[in-house]
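Ticket 4471: requesting a sanity check on a complex prediction with glutamine. Repro inputs:
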Amino acid sequence: MNVGVLALQGSVAEHLKMIQSVNKKIGAVPVRTIDDLATVDGLIIPGGESTTLRRLLDDFNLLVPIKERIAAGMPVWGTCAGLILLANRVEGELPCFSLLDVDVKRNAYGRQIDSFVTEGDFDGMYINMVFIRAPKVTRVGDGVKVLAEHNGEPVAVRQNNILATAFHPEMTRDSRVHRYFCNMIESKE
Ligand code: GLN
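Returned structure tokens:
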């Protein structure tokens, strides 16, 4: 099994390392081209800057091929900026992939200096959650399951093959959310 990490900008190396720490037998593949994309069974869209990532997705001709793969059922996990790119609606902006039935508001937890770490339940696992200029999920559609909350607001959601977290599990030493994503891929195969 190969897990791809979109490698245009953002926390790419951290995700690749985490995937390898889940199981050495799983391939962790940086994805920059359509050929890279063809080799992976699931894709992580990392945190970074969603406006930059979106431009680069266009420049690297990856936007449409990735959207098609996700729509065809490939498991995908967006962290932070990745969540923004997957969302159906982004306050004040045009959406990007528009495949996940949630609305988001960018930078809604404040500026860089307001970044914080908290703890909470993710689908029955108690984990650390690192928030860095994170978006808020302001609406969750009927087919979307909330996997984690912070102060009563959703911070991790899942809709079938699409997982999204407002926080950054790759910034911790705990690979259980990466394992959860690998299980999503495995159970699909
Ligand atoms: N603030 C960024 C954005 O709006 C997301 C930050 C992150 O991915 N850590 O795109």
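Notes from triage: Residues 176-188 form the longest helix (13 residues). Leaving this open until the requester confirms.
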